[in-house]
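Reviewer 2 asked us to include a model.

Predict the structure of this chain.
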Amino acid sequence: MLLFVLGIAALFAIFITGTPEGQAPVQSAGITLGLTAEARESLQQTGQAFPASEAAFSAYYRVPDGSGGFGLDKSAVDEALFSNPGPTLFRAGIGTLLGSGANFSVGAIPIINIDSLTTSVNLYYDDDGWIVAYFSSGQESSRAWQAVELSIETPALSDLSRTTLLDAINEVLTQALKQPAVTHDQLGYYHWEHPSATSFLMFATARGTIGSDVMSFAVPSNFVVQEVSTAMWISASDLPCARTVLDGVNITGDQCDRSFHYSTVGLPAFNSLSAHTLLLEHLNQDKGASGALVMLIYSAP
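Predicted model (structure tokens):
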């Protein structure tokens, strides 16, 4: 299967092949979006308490107040996230308050993912209406993969636009503020550890039968890759085993547990190659399912 990702990353040619052994065709999906510094610039200018030195990949949204400005009810959000045990549509359980002031709060909430797995997402919000969902400094950007809508036996990938960061923001909007949910294209995105990055790209594959999927891709020579991270999940109680291999290196090890596995790839080795191959191997039985994702943070001319 040949997949071209729309937007600036249409310059990436991504080839998807597989060995489905008589089963359904290989399923794959991709998305690319720009990174902007709007939240950083505004939060720094206003002197807000966002923990920039502790943040990595993020998504943000500013809540309109209905009068031409921006704002939110911080107390209502505090109550919903840290006093209501849940679960809700997005959150698996009660959140953890990490810090707060008169006009802001910082916390972490468990976002529901595939097969009752969870992804921890940090949240900053303030009474100026900013909501920033982010991963901690040093954590992989690929933690953004939200696979909750996939079947745990026969996954059919079609869209990667729903992320764990989007779900965290929608938890605040819908459950605490009783406002409509937003979509991925209503958010801004920024990587606090890579301020010069302009874009990110995610592409993934998944399967529920013994065999392997191969994703081959090449990065244009005038793009500067600043982070490469991967994610792999395994689902179902009757567990299969799976591994993810990038450029010949088994980056996850052989895994047989219902879980997510994340990794960051060393840039010197990655940049030394002109073409790359990611292999997802579903190993021991036609039960359960597994999926693998690559995420690139990069700057483009």
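Confidence is low (pLDDT under 50) at residues 1-11, 20-27. Helices lie at 38-45, 74-82, 164-176, 267-271. We have added this to the supplementary material.
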